[in-house]
Amino acid sequence: MKEFKNNEKGYVLIGVIATFVILSILSLTMITLSAASFKTSTTEKNNQSAFYIAEAGLNYQEQQLKNKIIKIYEANNVETEDDFIRELSSDVLFPDATYDDFEQENAYAELSVEKLSDYQFKIYSKGYVGKESRSLSRVVGVEWQDKYQFIEENVPAELPPFAVFTSGSFSMKSGTINGDIASTETAPDSVVFHNSGPNFNGEVYVKDENINIVKNYVNEDEFTPSIKLLDKKYTVPELPEFPQIPEVNDSERYDSVSLSGNQMKTIEISELGYFEEVKLQNNTKLTLDIGNQDTEIIVDKFDIENGHIYIKGEGNLTLYIVDYFNIDNGSTINQNGKVKQLNIFMKNNIEEVTIDGSQKINASLYAENANIYLTAGGGFKGNIFTGGTEFSITGGSSNNAQLFFAPNAHFKVKEGGKIRGKIIAEKFKMSGGGSVTFEEIHYTDGPISPSALNMENSSGEGSGGGTIVEKISTGNSPSFSGGSLEEND
Hints:
By secondary structure, this protein is of the alpha/beta class. A hairpin with a 2-residue loop joins strand 2 and strand 3 (120-129).
């Protein structure tokens, strides 16, 4: 009986131990399962947090990009869409960056921007939390909106309001100038008044108020020129393009004209005519009947030794002289006609144009390359343009109210030469008497006139001319569009 009781106690002990083991195993299993569940929950939480970190970083980078684009749009150097596109190409828009403005530790986003086109950008953001990361991207589009309304107005420049205007030196030894003079030269002693008796009634305009440009040798008690600042808008313009000489067909070719012994001849010309030579001698008279239409005449050799040319009709005549020009012995061209009716163009084969001996021409003249000499009573009404290097008016020659435009020439007035109008030249020299009087130009329109220089006549303060563009702000800003959020592997 006693042995049975001892066995019973042994069985109980074994059951207790087995139960403890089972409970221990169950406890370890529960602990393991709980730890695994906690780890899984933390990973999922960090992974989800990484998504939100990436999204926050992407939103931040998108706003930064928009702010930069708006700043570019508002910049003073951006007026047009082309300006806008140019500035959008700047690398400053696309730096890689890190955004870590988060309360959570070890949380940050790596950011970058890719330019897909002129107006599309792709933003990338990779968010990190611990060892977890998520990558997101979004395409952002920008659309140009007109920043200004541009209103263009063509306004002609005004001729510089000076009796003499040079890009180089000015020298006055004697004679008279009634009107202001100006020079864009900046070298010292570029504008000189000599002590032999100049009579200057005007003011001197120079660049930058540099008084060293002006040198006065006249007794200061007798003469002290007033020096003023030259407006920067006044510059010597360029010569207009020399016109192409028209081509002619056989029906437009006329026989050469050679008149002598008081002969008179009338030739009707319709629109275009070519003469190999026109030669007048012994007080002969040639009438060109052009009717009421605009007409062009081409002459290779133009020799008016002693004769007179008249224009009949109300049309305008353009005369091209190609190889040779001579006028002498009191000859006249269009003497009683309207200046604006005749424009004479001389090709660069002609190196010199001399008008003297009481010759008279009523026309505007453009010599492509010739030096011009007006002397001994020769008279010219109309504007004269030349690309030559010398322009001289001497010996009683009188020329009234016209523009002398010789931007490459040394312009000389001496020995009683007289001008009423405006001179624009590279250099100017007055000596031995003579006079220049500022006067408004009579002949303002046509291919040899201020209008051909895109200028208009004025004695006032003038204008820089050209195209004036008025900008009116539209109040616009660039517009943006955003694509859907994409998650990247």
